[in-house]
Automatic annotation (TrEMBL):
<keyword id="KW-0677">Repeat</keyword>
<dbReference type="Pfam" id="PF01535">
    <property type="entry name" value="PPR"/>
</dbReference>
<dbReference type="GO" id="GO:0003723">
    <property type="term" value="F:RNA binding"/>
</dbReference>
<dbReference type="InterPro" id="IPR002885">
    <property type="entry name" value="PPR_rpt"/>
</dbReference>
<keyword id="KW-1133">Transmembrane helix</keyword>
<keyword id="KW-0809">Transit peptide</keyword>
<dbReference type="InterPro" id="IPR046960">
    <property type="entry name" value="PPR_At4g14850-like_plant"/>
</dbReference>
<feature type="repeat" description="PPR">
    <location>
        <begin position="142"/>
        <end position="176"/>
    </location>
</feature>
<feature type="compositionally biased region" description="Polar residues">
    <location>
        <begin position="1"/>
        <end position="11"/>
    </location>
</feature>
<feature type="transmembrane region" description="Helical">
    <location>
        <begin position="282"/>
        <end position="304"/>
    </location>
</feature>
<protein>
    <recommendedName>
        <fullName>Pentatricopeptide repeat-containing protein</fullName>
    </recommendedName>
</protein>
<feature type="region of interest" description="Disordered">
    <location>
        <begin position="1"/>
        <end position="27"/>
    </location>
</feature>
<dbReference type="InterPro" id="IPR011990">
    <property type="entry name" value="TPR-like_helical_dom_sf"/>
</dbReference>
<keyword id="KW-0472">Membrane</keyword>
<dbReference type="Pfam" id="PF13812">
    <property type="entry name" value="PPR_3"/>
</dbReference>
<dbReference type="GO" id="GO:0009451">
    <property type="term" value="P:RNA modification"/>
</dbReference>
<keyword id="KW-0812">Transmembrane</keyword>
Length: 418
């Protein structure tokens, strides 16, 4: 047997110390390696290990460490592992931890930190019914409880309920005052509802509370006003942000674009460049959308080229889609082939939809649809067939329908809420 020399032993000890420090979320220089050989059943060590793994983004390892515990978890242990369950979007793991807490006598109100952690799991996993039942049963709620539920309702398809929950928070006598995260969450809901009156009321509330100057609140206000169709108010909210970040510029540029204000979007780009702010992919998408609405095909292609050549930003699928749409609306079909040939991503239904819906001169274009292996839906096949039929190409239209039948693709029946 070859005996290890002192250097090898020292190196192994250092490596183990680094591993232990990483697991406990501490600096190797300050880490006590003796903690790694503590007796079994030490809940303090287990809790710190689970917490460190969860906080360092190693959620799966945190849950695994919790499952291996040979000590009885306490409330702090559960509050440490529940964020890992939320990060993994593991509803089953979150429910299991919650059930364990209830069996231990942890009824709602026994520990607000654990209640909020469970609430966060249910919301992030989309179990809004369970989240609402837990929230209603909590005798004590803080700003985190209210904000979590408002956020979940706003992003879970119940924006009106989110606004209603915010109003209930203001009327609640528990003393939990909304913070910037709460206001941002309800503004997201307002953007979904399109209620301009709610947006204005929230801006007034934010001004009174001194939150309107917060960067994240200002960005949310810009988005809300844009979705409500009030571009001037969106620009006003932008101007009132003391410190504007790239999100602010991108949001206000998109606000101008979606409301058909191409000139204002282009002026914002010039203002950005004068202030030394480099546009990112979001800003370019807003500019391409503005060009699309205005039918400025040449300018859209100029932006698409500048992204990669000048700013080193690789255009994404949505950028190519907007450029194709701009060309289609402007009747610049001569540039279609050039753009499609540059696509670094696989064709999909969305890109093909823009490509073919805009084309009236089919010649060889439709053959790409038949040759490309793409998972197009029934609507895309029906659109292709109709367009060829409108162009008087009945045999080609029939060929598309025959392929649709051969692949057993059906078009969903259209419906409307009107």
């Amino acid at each position: 047997m070859v005996e290890k020399n002192q250097t090898q032993i020292s190196e192994e000890y250092s490596a183990k110390k680094k591993e232990g420090a990483a697991e406990y979320g501490e600096s190797p220089s300050n880490f006590d390696a003796g903690r790694m050989i503590r007796p079994r059943g030490d809940v303090v060590s287990w809790t710190k290990r689970v917490s460190a793994l969860a906080r360092s983004g190693r959620a799966a390892e945190a849950v695994a460490a919790f499952a291996r515990m040979d000590a009885q978890p306490n409330a702090l242990t559960l509050a440490s592992v529940l964020p890992a369950c939320a990060a993994l979007r593991s509803l089953s793991a979150g429910r299991a931890v919650h059930r364990f807490w209830l069996r231990r006598g942890g009824a709602p109100g026994a520990n607000l930190i654990v209640d909020n952690a469970v609430l966060d799991v249910y919301i992030k996993c989309g179990a809004l019914g369970s989240a609402r039942r837990l929230f209603d049963g909590m005798p004590e709620r803080d700003v985190r409880s209210w904000t979590a539920l408002v956020w979940g309702l706003a992003r879970g398809g119940s924006p009106h309920d989110a606004v209603g929950m915010f109003r209930a928070m203001l009327l609640d006598g528990g003393g939990a005052a909304p913070n910037e995260a709460t206001v941002v969450s309800v503004l997201h809901a307002v953007a979904r509802t399109g209620s301009l009156a709610c947006g204005e009321a929230l801006q007034s509330y934010a001004l009174k509370r001194g939150l309107a100057g917060e960067q994240v609140v200002g960005n949310a206000l810009i988005n809300a006003y844009a979705k409500c169709g009030d571009a001037p108010m969106a620009f006003r909210a932008f101007c009132e942000i003391p410190e504007k970040d790239l999100v602010s510029w991108g949001t206000v540029t998109m606000a101008m674009a979606v409301n058909g204000r191409c000139r204002e979007a282009l002026l914002l780009l010039l203002l950005m460049l004068r202030r030394g702010v480099q546009p990112d992919s979001v800003v370019f998408l807003a500019l391409l959308s503005a060009c699309c609405h205005a039918g400025l095909a040449d300018l859209a292609l100029l932006f698409l080229d500048a992204m990669a050549r000048v700013y080193g930003i690789a255009p994404g699928k949505e950028h190519y889609t907007s450029a194709l749409d701009a060309c289609g609306r402007a009747g610049r079909l001569d540039r279609f082939e050039e753009i499609v040939s540059q696509l670094p991503v696989e064709y999909d239904q969305q890109v093909l939809g823009v490509y073919y819906a805009s084309a009236s001169k089919w010649e060889p274009l439709w053959e790409r649809f038949l040759d490309v292996e793409v998972d197009a839906g029934g609507g895309m096949y029906a659109l292709m067939s109709k367009s060829l039929a409108d162009a008087g190409r009945w045999e080609d239209a029939s060929a598309v329908r025959e392929r649709m039948t051969a692949k057993r693709i059906e078009k969903d029946v259209a419906c409307t809420w009107i």
